[in-house]
Amino acid sequence: ISHPTNLYTSLPQTCLPIVYHPDYNITFMGLEKLHPFDAGKWGKVIHFLKEECFLTDADIVEAREATEEDLLVVHTKHYLKRLKWSVVVATITEIPPLLFLPNFLVQRKVLRPLRTQTGGTIMAGKLAVDRGWAINVGGGFHHCSSNKGGGFCAYADITLAIKVILTTSVVCGSAGFQGNGHERDFLEDRRVYIMDVYNSHIYPGDGHAKRAIRRKVELDWGTEDSEYLQKVELHCEGALNELRPDIIVYNAGTDILDGDPLGGLSISPQGIVKRDEIVFRAAKQRGIPILMVTSGGYQKRTARIIADSILNLRQQGLIRGGAGQSEGLPLRATHMESSSGSAGSTSTRE
């Protein structure tokens, strides 16, 4: 671990490397409904996995809130101070009425859940190294960089996970939106290899950040399963043949889903499940630890799809479910990102 943190505690081997906390879910007088993002999707994913007897509460690693000391590993003090202004948080989250609320409420009801998800990503990164794979049921705030938030992303959890734990990583993004946040953070860091698969016509269109992408896969409006999955597999294999990273950070957004109001792509639920299988299979075949975060997705059915994908990963033998069933892999890694757009998309995207 490169930086000291209290987020890591010794965990029983009976826990699965799946990180979650009920505090992930944002509910605040219905204001969360003013944003197209389903601010309760994380709890729904866990509910579906419990229904399918994949896990119980005892199997889950409980996320802990990232502290200011943790956040300062990446974020500037100036940026964190700006989050104490409700108008700034309203702009980042794209929920305008927040600017009228006292900041202590905004901190408690909006930013604390996002800090807890950020802590979950950092914890899942360590778990991935220890166990070979890990999933943070939240996180994936790929539009946030060290000094700027946007697109519902207030904290740079992907950058933090990489900087806290690792030295060499690959970030692979297969998402609707460009992951411009971590791209800006790693512009000058050749230890981090970024692959980004995204809709080139939507937010954020960050040309400066694109300079950090080592393998850029830009998609057109309405791209469907066949072309999409072919490109994901081709470029995932290509990236992992170019280098041997310490970890894969996989930003597995569901905003690529057909009908998503923001992503602009036409991928089926089965296509999303297959995409995740392709990425996990590539990691397992090479013995590279993989950390998955769930990122954006703006339809109510995305929680069911995420749960179905995790169940498929177990069925394919790429992860193991049930107490004491997790498996370890040697320390090697990469980072992948997947959502319906680019690695750094427009304002209302996570």
TrEMBL record:
Keywords: Chromatin regulator, Hydrolase, Nucleus, Repressor, Transcription, Transcription regulation. It catalyses: N(6)-acetyl-L-lysyl-[histone] + H2O = L-lysyl-[histone] + acetate. Residues 324-350 are annotated as: Disordered. Residues 338-350 have a biased composition (Low complexity). It is found in: Nucleus. Transmembrane segments: none annotated. Its EC number is 3.5.1.98. Interacts with HDAC6. Belongs to the histone deacetylase family. This is Histone deacetylase 11. The gene is HDAC11.
